Amino acid sequence: MKNIILFCSILLFIGCNNQQKKEPISDSDANISIKMYHDNTGRDDQFTGGIKMIPIETPKGEFKVWTKRMGNNPKIKVLLLHGGPGMTHEIYECFNGYFPQEGIEFYYYDQLGSYYSDQPKDLSLWDLPRFVEEVEQVRGALGLNKDNFYLYGQSWGGILAMEYALKYQQNLKGLVISNMVASIPEYQKYSDEVLAPQLPPEVLEEIMAYENKEDYSNERYLDLIVQNYYTKHIIRMPVEKWPNSINRAFHHLNPDVYVTMQGPSEFGIKGDATLKHWNVKDKLKNISVPTLSIGAEYDTMDPKQMEWIATEVQNGRYLHCPNGSHLSQYDDQENFFKGLISFIKDVDNGSF
Fold it and tell me: Which parts form a coiled-coil structure per UniProt (predicted)?
């Protein structure tokens, strides 16, 4: 859940999405035909191409959040929780290259405060329990239930997914926790003791000088982070090859949400960020719904801790992306999507 604010000032490049040839779906392997999957006849969102602006009740009044449905499958519906906090659904646009041919219905979703949804200025709204209730309201509005509802959360979205499952797992068919550990203090420890020392000594020294001065918006600091840290642990590609979808998402970040919950630093969560002490390690044993934990070899998060999540929940599986980093849906697509789709189908057909 590394700092995305910096990209708003330095990312001017357009990349291209990786593509991989797949066989089309068939009745035998997805229990739904191509025609059925793409038939929107009678759907209440046909007029808007799958988009719904869902009203959300909050302690500060009613607002609307943006969702977009992709495909039709009454048995499999995946709601995607983006990272950040304050990012957008755009980081998942590559899912459109893999889920449709597998017959998987899925939903893009911008959480309250994110670019395509309402963006109120009251900082008290950027509160974890309130976000959990928002997800529950979105679930209800979309008609998702225990017979079809898979919740996928990556990074901050993984925090939100864990907290949702701990309160509302009776509504879930499957849970996916992607690229997120169960403890922010352990995330900070891994950043300080494992990842930071891997940087060239002179680079780390210069970065920490800016950190110590809290000069997080300095262009030199941002450039050092992107070139030496992000291209190794966020998305393992040269900046000029980053997908356009990622660049747009970074550009659309809401810094008010991000700084309130995550803080301004690149190296973990500092200051008075509301997520600084978050930890649910002792609660994971209460999650009984089938759960997939996804980790990556070069992630900002410790892959061993993400593997541990799969052993701590009651019905878990771990997916390791050996070539991936924090955005392994882009830099290790072959392993990422193969494992994710297998989990969804195994749960669906009862073989998990």
Answer: none
Model confidence over 92-138: pLDDT tens digits?
999 999 999 999 999 999 999 999 999 999 999 999 999 999 999 99
Two tokens at 225? 């982070």
Alpha carbon 132 to chain centroid, angstroms? 15
- Per-residue burial over 17-29, b if 16 or more Cβ lie within 10 Å, else e, is ebeeeeeebeeee
> Angle between the 156-168 and 128-142 helix axes, to the nearest 10 degrees?
70
Which CATH architecture fits 7-186+274-349? Answer: 3-Layer(aba) Sandwich (3.40)
272 part of the active site: no
Alpha-carbon 319 to chain mean position = 15
Q: Which of 326, 328, 331, 348 is catalytic?
A: 326
Can 326 be counted among the known catalytic residues?
A: yes
Domain boundaries, the chain: 7-186+274-349
Q: What tens digit of pLDDT does each residue of 4-36 get? A: 444 444 343 333 333 334 444 444 344 689 999
Question: Is residue 26 annotated as a catalytic residue, yes or no?
Answer: no
Distance CA 167, CA 136 (A): 10
β-sheet bridge partners, residue 114: none
Phi, psi dihedrals of residue 155, rounded to the nearest 5°: 60, -125
Q: Using the 8-state DSSP alphabet, how is residue 153 labeled?
A: E
pTM of the model: 0.91
Query: Could you give the count of Cα atoms lying within 13 Å of 224 in the half-sphere of its Cβ?
Result: 23
